[in-house]
Design a protein that fits this description.
It is built from three helices and eight strands. With 153 residues, it is of the alpha+beta class. The chain has one domain: Electron Transport, Fmn-binding Protein, Chain A (Pnp Oxidase, Chain A), CATH 2.30.110.
């Protein structure tokens, strides 16, 4: 059995997290219905733009409704042993109100353009309040990279 490498420094974890945010395409988005409290976990494509995650989904889907009515969301990006967990605040933007350059960036990253779909889409900007990052148990103690919207490093 090989020995587990030591924990990464906070700065290395931040750089690794920013790389994952900038290069990964999909995330697991956890929402809750404000009326029933029913949880929902949905894979969505995202764009990391100006220190926020940008998602798009159909406006009338359960996830779209949850994101539009509940300002709190949790997002998981990466693998179980190399994860970035983001808790954030949601802002909804109608597809026809998105800045053209942001819509173009999202389309290039996600591989589809919600503005060109027949179904009505909304964009959702998630501003992180907290970010946790870890690979192994030995990194759990230093997993908080952001709390209350402030980076640790």
């Amino acid at each position: 059995m090989s020995e587990q490498p030591g924990p990464r420094s906070t700065e290395t974890r931040r750089q690794d997290a920013l790389y994952r945010l900038g290069h990964d395409v999909d995330a697991w988005v956890a929402t809750a219905d404000t009326g029933t409290g029913e949880p929902r976990l949905t894979p969505l494509s995202f764009l990391w733009h100006e220190d926020a995650l940008v998602f798009a989904t159909t406006t009338t889907s359960p996830t779209g409704r949850n994101l539009a009515t509940n300002e709190s969301v949790q997002v998981g990006i990466g693998l179980t042993r190399d994860v970035v967990l983001v808790q954030g605040t949601v802002e909804a933007v109608a597809a026809d109100a998105i800045a053209p350059d942001l819509g173009d960036l999202f389309a290039a990253k996600a591989g589809f353009d919600p503005r060109r779909q027949s179904a009505l889409y909304s964009y959702f900007r998630v501003t992180p309040r907290s970010i946790q990052v870890w690979r192994e148990e030995n990194e759990l103690a230093g997993r908080w990279l952001m709390r209350d919207g402030v980076w640790a490093a």
